[in-house]
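Posting here for the record, re: 1,3-dihydroxyacetonephosphate.
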Amino acid sequence: MKDIMNAPFLVEMIRTVTNMYAHGWDERNGGNVSLLLEADEVGAYLDTRQAIRTIPTGFSAPELEGKSFLVTGTGKYFKNVQYDPSGNLGIVRLTDGGEKAELLWGFSDGGQFTSEFPAHMMSHVARLKTDPDNRVVMHCHPANLLAMTYVHSLDEREFTRTLWQMCTECIVVFPDGVNVLPWMLCGTNEIGMATAEKMTTARLVVWSQHGIYGAGKNLDETFGLIETAEKAAEIYMKIAHLPRLHTISDEAMHQLEAHFGVKAREGYLN
Ligand code: 13P
Ligand code: ZN
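Prediction output follows.
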């Protein structure tokens, strides 16, 4: 059995959450990340026949039966993950139609997965239907995206268009745009279901006055997606109160579509 501390998925997770903290997206225990693991990836590092303990999930997700996830712990600080990976992270395998999670590694102080586990698992189900290569769901609290939800219309087309107009490459990075949920109580199955619904049409879902969810094929790509949207929101918050003399026109966006071979969300460009 290989040492899990050398597992590329664990190393990459530690580096990613450390970087998220460094970006200021994850104050205190803010934010959570889940990574879908391949069965053979887990088997190379862990004896998967024996579960450490079983944790009820409080929802069902039959599509994820038997699937394993590396996930951040509830109440855990991203800044501490690099110093104590097995105390702050865990690997769980879903059983009983997703109603139970078998702990295979981690949460060594008796803890458990993030309180946003429903939003993560339901979003994995939704994204896997659209993109079978999706592996990551990431949630965090980036300041500028959050700030935007206080001063900008929450209409998804308007919100997306504003972000696209803030940096030339936004439309290339997230041509599917950004979906937006109104403020909702976090940590519930309800916000989980609402997030998953929004994940069927976009890989970014803003939680108004709270943060953002991103989904992608790997940790780097998902981090980059949020990073790009957050950069755009930062520029918006720098200029929103100033007279706007220039912008990226819809004509320019169409040129970007053609040049980079991407298709903007239907009906979002004039
Ligand atoms: P957890 O500590 O349970 O992951 O919650 C943090 C958070 O961001 C809730 O939305
Ligand atoms: Zn949060």
